[in-house]
Amino acid sequence: MNLHDPHRPSKGKILIVLHQEMSSPGRVGQLLSAAGFQLDIRRPPLGDPLPDTLDGHRGAVVFGGPMSANDPDDFIKRETDWLAVPLKEDKPFLGICLGAQMLVNHLGGRVGPREDGAVEIGWYPIAPTKHGREMVEWPEMVYQFHREGFSLPSGSTLLAGGDVYPNQAFRYGRKAFGIQFHAELTRAMMHSWVVRGASRFDLPGAQPGREHLAGRLLWDIKLRSWLEGFLHHIFEEGADARVIAPAKPDAISYARRDDVLS
């Protein structure tokens, strides 16, 4: 993406789906806007409707939130069912954390915590697969903030994996992508998450807040670079991308948990 041409014509609208009143699309929004896209921001938990079609949009991004993809709230079901729209219309789609987990549920996969209760909250290593490396150069470390993971839906392709939660990024068809981690956080957003989420740092496997901020100094430059390339691939190159061979679903076992964080 060329991020230095404010006078370029609009490339169309991207639907941005957020889940809290004060949530922001962060760097995803910044990069898409700088690349020439307009942002159409909707918040389904606050009553915003989702469009019946994406004919007027270039694609969609569904972000994370403190709720679970398995929660019984009406908006969770409506939003999960709505994912049929970008899939049927073959429009570029990116699900981030909760958004990825909704996509997994929509595709018949499973979402849930590990049986041992281990979480990923902080910076953790990631390893791209062969298919992932063919798309873009990946960072060695990514920022996480979740207590649930997901199985690899049937017919999808794993793009990157991790040690604690093995499925970190996947592709379904030509244009639908899901990622478990957070590359969208600005510095201000990370400081806010560290303050508001401090109670979760005592969970098994979580890192203390000081490591979140220290890790940003070490690894965020590569994470931001990856995000720029990944968004470019999805929203500007994805229409010409070939379908890559799907991997077999994994056999991860998840325990039931009522209190989860996506």
TrEMBL record:
Pfam families attached to this UniProt entry: GATase (PF00117)
Keyword terms, alphabetized: Glutamine amidotransferase
Database matches in InterPro entries: ChyE-like, Class_I_gatase-like, GATASE
Domain spans labelled Glutamine amidotransferase: 54-186
Coiled-coil regions listed in the entry: none
Name of this chain's protein: Glutamine amidotransferase
